[in-house]
Amino acid sequence: MTHRSIARRTTDEQGITTAEYAVGTAAGAGLAGLLYKLLTGGFGDRLLKTLFDHVLGLLGIG
Hints:
Layout: H1 3-12, H2 18-40, H3 42-59
Helix pairs in contact: 2-3
């Protein structure tokens, strides 16, 4: 294996392809939508209140 073939192989694998960008973008948008739906409903309100009360209890404030 020559130096030229090694250099060519490493430069051909840099970056990600457009298809990988599309899959990553779709997954991110889906996760954001799911989190938005969970946190804006009653479950999100209870979750945030419980978390906030727990942190205040740990700090000795609540």
